[in-house]
């Protein structure tokens, strides 16, 4: 582990990084980054066990991608 280097999330090998690491990489590359405050909720999908809870909560909702 090197200080200041992005760290894999939860020991995941091969590419998933914390959002703070991703934002820092953008800043380091000179990409403009803005903060948007929001009071909206967040669906936590940090683990596989979260999927069922979120799926049940969103059952019947229209999805637009």
Rg from Cα: 16 Å
Helical residue percent? Answer: 25-40%
The number of distinct β-strands equals: 0
Structural class: mainly alpha
Query: What proportion of the residues form beta strands (DSSP E)?
Result: under 5%
Shape: extended
How does this structure look, described?
The N and C termini lie far apart (37 Å). The chain is built from 2 helices and no strands. The chain has helices at residues 19-28, 48-58. The longest helix is centred in the last third of the chain and has 11 residues, at 48-58. It is mainly alpha-helical. It has one domain (9-58). The chain is extended, with a radius of gyration of 16 Å.
Question: What labels describe this entry?
Answer:
single chain, 65 residues, extended
